[in-house]
């Protein structure tokens, strides 16, 4: 699998369900801001609603950091609305739920399970230039943590704003960073 880190997001235009309305979202709408793409296999399933609800519980904080969240499955935007209206967990979702019934977006992020026509559990952090900074893919039975993604957002934003500094493992906002240099080689 070729790395997609620092690759531009694929061009797309798709219908989404967001805040009680249907809306068209394009790849151009994403650029200029930070974004999380949260791919999941299917609506009306088991692990998926726990992940979308977890992200919804952190959405306000992500918005405060200038991050928009886009959940994506190969279901339609109509199915997203029906799920939103019938599930207490999904009813908490205020971010756009993109329908990708053709699989174009899912294939563009290389997370399509072709034989099933469903998306893998893929999470991508996109910078304001439209470039992928974080890419994670989980097996179907392993749910993701919005809290950990929030930490990665803060690290990516810190690195972007502080040229020459990097964030070590398990870095938390306000923690020590590193400035790679010859002096550090073999000292860590």
TrEMBL record:
InterPro entries: AhpC, AhpC/TSA, Peroxiredoxin, Peroxiredoxin_AhpC-typ, Peroxiredoxin_C, Thioredoxin-like_sf, Thioredoxin_domain. Residues 3-158 form the Thioredoxin domain. It is an enzyme of class 1 (oxidoreductase). Keywords: Antioxidant, Cytoplasm, Disulfide bond, Oxidoreductase, Peroxidase, Redox-active center. PROSITE patterns: THIOREDOXIN_2. Pfam families: 1-cysPrx_C, AhpC-TSA. Its EC number is 1.11.1.26. It catalyses: a hydroperoxide + NADH + H(+) = an alcohol + NAD(+) + H2O. It comes from the Bacteria. It is found in: Cytoplasm. The keyword Oxidoreductase applies. Its main location: cytoplasm. Belongs to the peroxiredoxin family. AhpC/Prx1 subfamily. Homodimer; disulfide-linked, upon oxidation. 5 homodimers assemble to form a ring-like decamer. Thiol-specific peroxidase that catalyzes the reduction of hydrogen peroxide and organic hydroperoxides to water and alcohols, respectively. Plays a role in cell protection against oxidative stress by detoxifying peroxides. This is Alkyl hydroperoxide reductase C. It comes from Psychrobacter glaciei.
């Amino acid at each position: 699998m070729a790395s997609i880190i620092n690759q531009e997001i694929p061009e797309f235009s798709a219908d989404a369900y967001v805040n009680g309305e249907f809306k068209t979202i394009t790849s151009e709408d994403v650029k200029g801001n930070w974004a999380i793409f949260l791919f999941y296999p299917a609506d009306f399933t088991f692990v998926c609603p726990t992940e979308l609800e977890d992200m919804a519980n952190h959405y306000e904080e992500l918005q405060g950091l200038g991050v928009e969240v886009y959940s994506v499955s190969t279901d339609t935007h109509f199915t997203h609305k029906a799920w939103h209206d019938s599930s207490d967990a999904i009813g908490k979702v205020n971010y756009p739920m993109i329908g990708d019934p053709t699989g174009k977006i899912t294939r563009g992020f290389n997370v399509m399970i072709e034989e099933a026509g469903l998306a893998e559990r893929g999470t991508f952090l996109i910078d304001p230039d439209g470039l992928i900074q974080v890419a994670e893919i989980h097996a179907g039975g392993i749910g993701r943590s919005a809290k950990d993604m929030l930490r990665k957002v803060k690290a990516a934003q810190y690195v972007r704003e502080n040229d020459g500094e990097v964030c070590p493992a398990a870095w938390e906002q306000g923690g020590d960073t590193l400035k790679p240099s010859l002096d550090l080689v073999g000292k860590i």
